Amino acid sequence: MTSQSTPLLCAFVATILLLAVPMGRWLAAVADGRLTRLQRFDSAVLRAFGASPEREQGWREYATALLVFNVLGVIAVYALQRLQGVLPLNPQGFAAVSPDSAFNTAISFVTNTNWQGYSGESTMSNLTQMLVLAVQNFLSAATGMAVAFALIRAFARHSAATLGNFWADITRITLYVLLPLCVVLALVFSAQGVVQSFAPNSEVTLLDPIGKTTIQTLPIGPIASQEAIKMIGTNGGGFLNANSAHPFENPSAWSNWLQMLAIFVIPAGLCLAFGQLVGDKRQGWALLIAMTVIFVAAVVAILCAEQAGNPKIGALGVDHAESVLQAGGNMEGKETRFGIAATSLFAAITTAASCGAVNGMHGSFTPLGGAVPMLLIQLGEVVFGGVGSGLYGMLVFAVLTVFIAGLMIGRTPEYLGKKIEPAEMKLVSIAILFTPLLVLAGTAIAVLVDPGKSGMANPGAQGLSEVLYAFSSAANNNGSAFAGLSANTPFYNAMLGIAMWFGRFGVIVPVLAIAGSLAAKKRVQRIGEDGTLSAMPTHGPLFIVLLISTVMLVGALTYVPAIALGPVVEHLNLYK
Predict the structure, then answer these.
(1) 198-202, 324-328, 469-473, 483-487 — which is least confidently predicted?
(2) In a domain, 493, yes or no
(3) Is 70 exceeded by the pLDDT of residue 527?
(4) What are phi and psi of 372, to 5 degrees?
């Protein structure tokens, strides 16, 4: 940790905790249906389209509506990519996107992954960027938040058969949370210098030191509007290939700061909204503190690894140690505008929050510095996580925690007055273990077959890390990547697309099933006949420590062998 990185981290954490309070209140009001005047408008719109917002749905009907909505989204996104060559707002004259890339991108943006195997400025027209990618940024984010709302209602209700109305939830989340925030943030980004234009690409004449002139094409387009929802919705898909490392997407230290805050503000607020809606604010703070502790530890680990630098650079006689005259450390893959501190913090935020946006290249981090973002993804994107998905993922771990703790101390496994029984634990096991199965099986297949190996530019431990990171990012719906893997091939487009789809909905469906089971339960009496609590309190330091331990233990047992063969081996080779 340096004199620059410590205050930066402290300021970020403090700001997020402050912003989480008003955001939590607003999200609770939206989830609880307390915006009565505003809801007259959306109710009229929903009825016009044949939906009845007052009629609530059971978990099966809620899940069916969600799946149908997202399947239709995949079809629409795929079709528009294939037809972009004959559609308007295509000043660059881009042809149709190839079938395999269009398939991958359609699933990617519908699942809130935003994995991009293509270069946006040379592949997607302005219409595709706005009507396909930006719109799905809103809808995929709203889908994750709708699932979180349904699970919160399951804990707040008892002896209930319904979880809410999916169509009402996704409409109100979009209209009253995502859209207002993005309008404001897009205007602020534009003021900071983020490009927002419908003009064709600009050509400028450059003069090199020997007097030779060259023509460079500068890609421009409606970037600020997409940048706002990219961050607020924890989507991560950039208008430009360099993502938030490009000065047209992220021109200044202030825009970088706002982007980092935008990624975390809704996930943090959802934790406090959870506490308000279940009637005990301490429960929300317990989840938020657990997430914050893991996040701070991850940032410190990345900063220490990157600030230590590359020993092979030092062996060449290059002075890369921190001093009064230089920041020192490993600057490879980092923007000089942001440096090691801001890039390391951004890397931890984007991989903890299921965002996938980057302002530096994770593959150029030191082996251990790159292993931490990878592990944050592999933990299940529950350290703040994506909008909605982070909260419902952490609540699944909370249920597992109270079950294990209850068995250890001989008390009833119970969370917020709901008994945790075998049916819930089977669904919890599926939700937690299904994604690692996709990651590890996909990685194993990719490194065994020729189409998978042909995309690996780097042999050995680094190549394995690149493939492992790719499948971890896809199945956990993150979207960031290590450089060096040529993933825009029919093999990887298909394999990663499958991992993204099942990684998203293979978790959502069990979570909604858990919600349906919990909502139907009666509240248990927490005070026993002897006057003592019949279950472990779930808001104090002990529960927070147990929750953190459970998240880390599951991640360690699942992924450490694979990480040992990739980043750990590479680290040992670096110091050999």
Answers:
(1) 324-328
(2) yes
(3) no
(4) -65, -50
Length of the chain: 576
Q: Which of 77-80's residues contact partners 24+ apart within 8 Å by CB, and which partners?
A: 77/102, 77/105, 77/106, 77/109, 77/110, 77/132, 77/133, 77/136, 78/102, 78/103, 78/106, 80/127, 80/128, 80/131, 80/132
Q: How many domains does the chain have?
A: 1
Instruction: Label residues 22-59 b or e (16+ Cβ within 10 Å = b).
Output: ebbebbbbbbeeebeeebeebbeebeeeebebeebbbb
**pTM (2 decimals)?**
0.94
- What DSSP string describes 324-388? SS---S--TTB-TTTHHHHHHHHHHHHHHTT----SB-GGGS-HHHHHHHHHHHHTTS-SS-STT
Angle (deg, nearest 10), helices 135-156 and 223-232: 20
DSSP annotation of 525: P
DSSP type of residue 83: T
- Determine the Cα–Cα distance for residues 282 and 513; give it in Å rounded to an integer: 26
Residue 211 to residue 83: CA distance in whole angstroms: 43
The confidence score (pLDDT) of residue 526 equals 59
User: Which whole number is the average pLDDT over 525-546?
Assistant: 74
Please name the amino acid found at residue 157. R
Chain-centre distance for alpha carbon 97: 25
Residue 203: band (very low, low, confident or very high) from pLDDT cuts 50, 70, 90: confident
Q: Is pLDDT of 58 > 90?
A: yes
**DSSP string for residues in 179-224:** HHHHHHHHHHHHHHT--B--SPPEEEEEE-TTS-EEEEEE--SBHH
Instruction: Tell me whether residue 252 is exposed, middle or buried, using C-beta atoms within 10 angstroms of its C-beta: 0 to 12, 13 to 18, 19 or more.
Output: middle
User: How many other C-beta atoms are found inside a 10 Å radius of the C-beta of residue 65?
Assistant: 18
For the purposes of burial, counting CB atoms within 10 Å of the CB of 422, is it exposed (0-12), middle (13-18) or buried (19 or more)?
A: exposed
Q: How far is Cα 365 from Cα 61, in angstroms, rounded to an integer?
A: 45
**pLDDT value of position 532:** 54
Pairing of strands 213-218, 414-415: unpaired
> Is 28 within the bounds of a domain?
no
* Cα separation, 465 vs 531, whole angstroms: 54
Cross-strand bridge partners of residue 213: 207
φ and ψ of 334, to 5 deg: -120, 145
Q: Is residue 482 part of a domain?
A: yes
Q: List, for residues 63-117, the tens digit of each pLDDT value.
A: 999 999 999 999 999 999 999 999 998 888 899 999 999 999 999 999 999 999 8
Judge whether 174 and 139 are in contact, CB under 8 Å.
Answer: yes
Cα angle 353, 355, 274; round to 5: 40
> Rounded to an integer, what distance in angstroms lies between the CA atom of residue 295 and that of residue 358?
17
At residue 502's C-alpha, the angle toward residues 496 and 508, to 5°, is: 140
Smallest CA-to-CA distance from 337 within 359, 308, 355 is with 359
Range of the domain at 492: 389-574
Is 395 a domain residue? yes
